Amino acid sequence: MRPATMTVELRAHLAAAAYLMSMSGDSALVVTTDGSPRAPLGVITDWDITQAVARGEDLEAVRISDLLPRQTVTVRPGTSVDEATRLMLEMGLHHLVVASDPGVVGIVDTMDMCRALIGSAQP
């Protein structure tokens, strides 16, 4: 797991999300509520932005809320690598939000899972 270095609010437009991803070097942002603590609502990815561009959508007009999936999948900080990987495979996800009370703790992606699995397989 790594900290969610950048988050984005539901009302933000895709151009803002693309800018934040570019500045942070991340391929995904955790979408959060406005309040404190910032509760996770989902994940917006570079793939979501790419698809909007391919459809010819105006990135200044499309809001994160227009693209966010209805179901938010999170794991707790103590979730095992095997369990998180299994969940990602079963649900077809490339990113998982790590959350606990009171809010977002971090994010994991398929590269993080590969690193952890390879590291655990080494003697």
Question: What is this structure's SSE topology?
Answer:
Layout: E1 7-9, H1 14-24, E2 28-32, E3 40-45, H2 46-54, H3 64-67, E4 74-75, H4 81-91, E5 95-100, E6 103-109, H5 110-121
Parallel strand pairs: 1-2, 4-5
Antiparallel strand pairs: 2-3, 5-6
Helix pairs in contact: 4-5
What do these coordinates show?
The protein has 123 residues and is of the alpha/beta class. The protein contains 5 helices and 6 strands; from the N terminus they run βαββααβαββα. It has helices at 14-24, 46-54, 64-67, 81-91, 110-121, and strands at residues 7-9, 28-32, 40-45, 74-75, 95-100, 103-109. A 3-stranded mixed sheet has the order 1-2-3. It has a 3-stranded mixed sheet with strand order 4-5-6. The longest helix has 12 residues, at 110-121.
Give a brief outline of the structure.
This protein has 123 residues and is of the alpha/beta class.
* Cα-to-Cα separation, first versus last residue: 22 Å
Number of helices: 5
Mean pLDDT across every amino acid position: 87
Global geometry: globular
Strand content: 15-25%
The number of distinct β-strands equals: 6
**Order of the strands making up the biggest sheet:** 1-2-3
Element pattern in H and E: EHEEHHEHEEH
For the CA atoms, what is the radius of gyration? Answer: 15 Å
Helix content: 25-40%
Outline the low-pLDDT stretches. none
Class based on secondary structure composition and strand pairing:
alpha/beta
State the major sheet.
3 strands, mixed
